[in-house]
Description:
Layout: H1 19-32, H2 40-44, H3 50-61, H4 72-85, H5 89-94, H6 101-118, H7 127-134, H8 140-146, E1 151-156, E2 187-190, E3 204-205, E4 213-216, E5 241-242, E6 250-251, H9 253-258, E7 265-267, E8 279-282, E9 296-301, E10 311-315, E11 324-325
Antiparallel strand pairs: 1-9, 2-8, 3-8, 4-5, 4-7, 6-11, 9-10
The chain binds a DNA duplex through helix 3 and helix 6.
Amino acid sequence: MGRRSCGYKQKLRKGLWSPDEDEKLLRYITKHGHGCWSSVPKLAGLERCGKSCRLRWINYLRPDLKRGGFSSQEENLIIQLQSVLGNRWSQIAARLPGRTDNEIKNLWNSSIKKKLMQKGGDPNTHKTLSEAMLSTSTCPEKASRELDTAISLNLKEDSSKPSLIDVSSCRNEKGDDNLNASKTSAHQEFFPNKSFPMNRYPSIQQRPLDSIACLQFPVQNLSHDQLKLDQKGILFEPNKEFNSRTPVPTFSRSFLSAQTDNKIYAGLPFHPMGTFNNIHWDSSNCSGNKSFDSNVFSWGLADGGGSSDKTLQLHSADAETTDIKWS
DNA sequence: AACACACGCAACCGCCGGAGG
DNA sequence: CCCTCCGGCGGTTGCGTGTGT
C-alpha cells in the first residue's frame, strides 16, 4: 500500500483554489500568522489539508511575492545558481527575493532548459556554461553576460610582491570604479570589488543561506589522483559545492601544475540583487600560513567582456610552498 | 469553426529529516 | 529505539490557454 497523501482521513477539496478560499486563507494568516499549518485549514474554515494551505500561501498569497515575468538578469542568475547549486530550487529561490521555488522550477523546466539545449548546452551538466566559466576569453561577450556576477579564483604561475589585492581596475555592478578596500578588522566583508589581505589562510564564513560555494576546475584536466585527501581523509571533489563545514580541500603542486590554464574557479553565493552576500575573509586564524605563497591569485568578477583586467589581482609575497588550502 | 498540439503554471505526490511522545 | 506527525523539498501531473493547421 502506498503512502497516503495529506487529507486522506477526510474528504478534502483539491485542485484550484477559489477566490473565496484565497480570501479565507489570506484573512486568517494576515490576522493570526500561519502557526501550525496542519491546524490552519480548520481555523480558517477551509476544507483543505495544511500542506495545500501552506503551498497556496507560499506560492501565491504571500504579500512579498513579485509578480510578472522573469527579467533576463533574473534568468541569468538562475542559470548561474543552478550550475552551482543544482536543482535546489528553494536555495535558488532564497537568492531571488519575491520568487518562489515552484516558479523558478517551472521556469527552468519550461524555458531555460530548452534555451540551454538550443544553445547546444547540456542543462544537467552545464557543460557549455562551465566551459564559458573556465574560458572567458573564448567567448568574452557571452561569458560576460552569463557570468557577470560570478567570482573566479584564478591561480597564476608567477608571483609578485604586493600582498594586497589590486582593485584599481575593478568595477561594481553600477560601474563604480575602484571601490575602497575594507580591511579594518580580522573579519572582513568580502565583496567582489573590495580588497582584502591575502598572504593568509582563507576561510569562508557564511550565514546559513549562504553556505554554498563551489570550486570549479577545468574538467579536461581533472584527475582525482592529483587531488589530495583532506585532513579527515575525505577526497575533496571539485566542481561540487562545499560550505564552511565541508572538509578542507587541498591541492598538490602537481595537480596545480597540471592545470593548463592554471586557474581554479570558485563560485560563491550570489546576492539576489546582484551584489554579494556577506562572505567573510577571515584572517584571524591564518598567521604563518603560506599556503598561497609562490603564486598569484586573484578573486574577481569573471567578466571577460573585453576587459583584460577586471579581476581582483592578488599577489603573494613568498615563493616556496606547494599547497593551497581552504580553512 | 474545429481540432490538435504546445506551453506555462498551479497544485499534487511522495520522500525525507527533525521533533516529540 | 520506534512510531507518528509535521514541514519542507523536488519531481511530476494535469488543467487552462494560446497558437497553428
